[in-house]
Automatic annotation (TrEMBL):
Protein name: O-methyltransferase, family 3
Example of a GO biological process term: methylation
Family: Belongs to the class I-like SAM-binding methyltransferase superfamily. Cation-dependent O-methyltransferase family.
Organism whose genome encodes this protein: Ophiocordyceps sinensis
Lineage: Eukaryota, Fungi, Dikarya, Ascomycota, Pezizomycotina
Domain of life: Eukaryota
Keyword terms, alphabetized: Methyltransferase, S-adenosyl-L-methionine, Transferase
InterPro entries in the record: Cation-dep_OMT, SAM-dependent_MTases_sf, SAM_O-MeTrfase
Length: 244
């Protein structure tokens, strides 16, 4: 079949936006406290692009329920929106462990959880490269969401795989676990290195992020223990299933 680019599906960007809005309206509904919090963060923070979209969150909830997810690791909490989504997905008997390097972000997230009566999220403050390995237990997690520092993605994947050895009684992730990585195409700069647009504060940060994401993408695609589907939607989302 001849390859058809995504941009060719819709004649204009306006039509693409209308189609996206229509799709969101015809997908599973998000609770009011989640959409209200997303709107609040979007309105008051200049860095709100660090949040996932409501539409992407609909996918996360669908996947969590399809995979029977009850325990989630959220790597990169920011101000708590994604953790709220996973909290809703797993239900009151489930649990979300959020890893966040910024005490300020973590405090804002915890305040939002308390304000909305959410009590199944634990926020762990610190560098995820140090806190993630400490989550190994005899009750492994069912899913992980990577949405933190992009240069660190490849290292986090090594820790997740290394901490989830086949047959091990204590591990990070259970066999068949769901793994989701966000921002894997980074505004199109990953598939097209020649792009001149820049959303980074420095060229060094741009270089580090793009090199880290390419290393992560290649690592995941080559890993025999992972079933991988990379979706060219939003900022690029990779869905994976851990094989034992």
């Amino acid at each position: 079949m001849k390859h058809t680019s995504i941009s060719a599906i819709y004649a204009t960007s306006e039509l693409a936006e209308k189609s996206s809005d229509y799709s969101e309206a015809h997908s599973l509904a998000l609770p009011r406290h989640i959409t209200d919090y997303h709107a609040s963060v979007w309105a008051r923070r200049d860095d709100s692009l660090m949040m996932s979209s409501n539409q992407q969150s609909q996918l996360h909830i669908f996947l969590a329920r399809a995979f029977g997810v009850k325990r989630v690791i959220d790597v990169g909490v920011f101000v708590g929106y994604s953790a709220m989504v996973w909290s809703h997905a797993v239900g009151p008997q489930g649990h979300v462990t959020g890893l966040e390097i910024s005490p300020e972000f973590a405090r804002e997230a915890d305040e939002a959880f308390a304000a909305n009566g959410i009590d199944n999220i634990e926020t762990v403050v610190g560098d995820a490269s140090e806190t993630l390995p400490k989550l190994v237990s005899d009750t492994p997690y069912d899913a992980v969401f990577l949405d933190a520092d992009k240069p660190g993605y490849a290292g986090y994947m090594e820790q997740l795989l290394g901490g989830s050895q086949p047959g091990a009684a204590r591990r990070l992730l259970r066999p068949g676990a769901l793994m989701v990585a966000d921002n894997v195409l980074r505004w199109g700069h990953i598939p097209d290195p020649g792009l001149t647009t820049s959303y980074w504060s420095s060229e060094e940060l741009k270089r580090r992020e793009l090199e880290g994401l390419r290393r992560f993408n290649d690592r995941c695609a080559a890993e025999p223990r992972l079933e991988v589907v990379m979706l060219p939607v939003w900022d690029g989302v990779t869905l994976m299933r851990l094989l034992d």
